[in-house]
Write a structure and sequence with these properties.
About 15% of the residues lie in helices and about 30% in strands. With about 180 residues, it is of the alpha+beta class. The strands form two sheets. Strands 1, 2, 3, 4, 9, 10, 11 and 12 form an eight-stranded antiparallel sheet that branches.
Length: about 180
């Protein structure tokens, strides 16, 4: 029986550099560009379900404005929450008879399955949404701790935009 020779790596430093570069690239991508985020709770139901895993795009808002109806991840008192942007800086906002009014104009919310209780931005002590702040709310209005409770969120609290569910695979895809 012949004994097989085990080949030693020709240059272990080269392998170390390759693997180190891969690890560094993953860390940089996850830190600055995209990272997974988990839906916790039912506040965005039926758009998002509890325990779904989404990709958080941290890069988009470096070049683009936050838009009405974007789904965002917010750092609220050290906890990451997923909500929908409804009101933008400088706007008036109210819900009356289940209808959203922005600056007095009716806005449709096609993703909603239930009516929203009456609410006015003045209930938070503002005439308008403050500069550099946003009004965010969950799609499951009866089960959401959002700007109606925590107040408007600063742009610096918004960690990025998310719309792509990756797990579970059978429910993967874009959400709006």
């Amino acid at each position: 029986m012949k004994k097989e020779k085990v080949k030693k790596p020709e240059n272990p430093l080269k392998d170390l550099i390759i693997y180190g570069s891969i690890i560094l690239a993953i860390i940089l991508v996850r830190t600055f560009i995209v990272t997974p985020v988990r839906v916790n709770g039912e506040s965005m139901y039926p758009t998002l379900n509890n325990k779904e895993i989404m990709l958080l795009n941290k890069w988009d808002y470096k070049f683009n404005d936050i838009k009405r109806f974007d789904i965002v991840v917010v750092n609220a008192n050290g906890k990451k929450i997923i909500k929908r942007v409804i009101g933008l800086p400088g706007e008036t906002l109210k819900y009356e008879n289940g209808t959203l009014y922005i600056d007095g104009q009716e806005k449709e919310e096609p993703y909603l399955k239930e009516k929203t209780e009456d609410f006015n931005i003045k209930d938070l002590g503002y005439d308008k949404i403050p500069n550099n702040c946003y009004f965010v709310i969950g799609d499951n209005r009866d089960n959401s701790k959002d700007s109606r409770i925590i107040g408007c969120v600063k742009k610096s609290q918004i960690k990025g935009k998310t719309s792509l569910v990756v797990l579970p695979i059978k429910k993967a895809g874009h959400r709006n």
